[in-house]
């Protein structure tokens, strides 16, 4: 039978890419880590690592076993928590990652009801971009991450992470007060091809969603400023320095601007919650229920 302790050692080598990294995380000596790997190979009856003079890498069998080890260790942790706490969701810790505009209303709405029901759960909230925080979900440093995905810039979650769809959030055209286009219910981007634009950076590339959408309409926008902070974008638009595309969560309730619908089929974000299905944290399941409820309320508010 394979040792769970040695499986944990293998998993840390897989995560860190080295014996030294695994030793640091597990607070063991490198020689102890190497010894445990050798014992695990004996138990498995197959080579799990390829050793060279100054490097080490997992074999195909080692990588497969590391993936299974993640699942096994999650199940063991779940069993331990069931025995110790009888799977109660009103204690423990919940680690939540989120992007900035989700922190304006969506996340506070979910957390206000969750904390009223589970006041003893310790919350650890981490602000960041989804592509920066997804590795933390994969390795278990975050229980759940509120994410977005642009329809024009899709991505796939890491292996072992699933995204629960919450709602689709339209991109809105934001204009200075008095702008002529603000009198129309829907506006095409090409109608504003000569305007200066305030836009974001790309999710994981230099190309923003505005630039992708504009290319589909046959023009290249004049970019006056790039910012991933919607307060900055709205302030510049409010001052008459340009026009912008802003997701509904980022523009909701803002004053001193005009907001119009955009006449384009794929200008929206998919909002979701990324987590590991094998995560044993009982508070996670309860929080996801409150997040779904908050999302349903936000869908109505953003219409």
From TrEMBL:
Domain HTH lysR-type positions: 1-59
Pfam families given in the database record: HTH_1, LysR_substrate
InterPro entries assigned to the protein according to its UniProt record, in alphabetical order: LysR_HTH_N, LysR_subst-bd, WH-like_DNA-bd_sf, WH_DNA-bd_sf
Signal peptide: none
CDD domains: PBP2_LTTR_like_6
Domain of life of the native organism: Bacteria
Record key words, sorted: DNA-binding, Transcription, Transcription regulation
Coiled coil: none
Gene3D superfamilies recorded: Periplasmic binding protein-like II, Winged helix-like DNA-binding domain superfamily/Winged helix DNA-binding domain
PANTHER family listed in its UniProt record: LYSR SUBSTRATE-BINDING (PTHR30346:SF29), TRANSCRIPTIONAL DUAL REGULATOR HCAR-RELATED (PTHR30346)
Stated family: Belongs to the LysR transcriptional regulatory family.
Protein name: LysR family transcriptional regulator
Native source organism of the sequence: Microtetraspora fusca
């Amino acid at each position: 039978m394979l040792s769970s302790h040695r499986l944990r050692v293998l998993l840390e080598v897989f995560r860190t890419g080295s014996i030294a990294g695994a030793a640091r995380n597990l607070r063991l000596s490198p020689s102890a880590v190497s010894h445990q790997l050798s014992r695990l190979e004996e138990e498995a009856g197959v080579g799990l690592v390829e050793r060279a003079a100054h490097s080490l890498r997992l074999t195909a069998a080692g990588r497969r076993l590391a993936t299974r080890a993640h699942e096994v260790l999650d199940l063991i942790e779940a069993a331990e928590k069931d025995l110790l706490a009888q799977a109660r969701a009103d204690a423990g810790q919940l680690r939540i990652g989120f992007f900035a505009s989700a922190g304006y209303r969506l996340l506070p709405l979910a957390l206000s009801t969750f904390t009223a029901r589970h006041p003893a759960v310790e919350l650890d909230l981490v602000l960041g971009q989804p592509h920066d925080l997804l590795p933390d979900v994969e390795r278990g440093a975050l229980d759940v991450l509120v994410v977005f995905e642009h329809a024009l810039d899709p991505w796939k979650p890491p292996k072992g992470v699933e995204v629960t769809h919450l709602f689709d959030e339209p991109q809105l055209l934001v204009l200075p007060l008095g702008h002529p286009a603000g009198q129309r219910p829907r506006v095409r981007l090409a109608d504003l091809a000569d305007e200066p634009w305030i836009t974001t950076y790309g999710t994981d590339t230099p190309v923003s969603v505005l630039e992708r959408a504009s290319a589909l309409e046959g023009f290249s926008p004049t970019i006056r400023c790039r910012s991933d902070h919607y307060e900055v974008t709205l302030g510049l638009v409010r001052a008459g320095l340009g026009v912008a595309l802003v997701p509904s969560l980022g523009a909701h309730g803002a004053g001193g601007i005009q907001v119009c619908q955009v006449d384009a089929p794929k200008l929206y974000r998919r909002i979701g919650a990324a987590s590991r299905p094998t995560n044993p944290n009982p508070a996670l399941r309860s929080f996801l229920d409150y997040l779904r409820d908050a999302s349903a309320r936000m869908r109505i508010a953003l219409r």
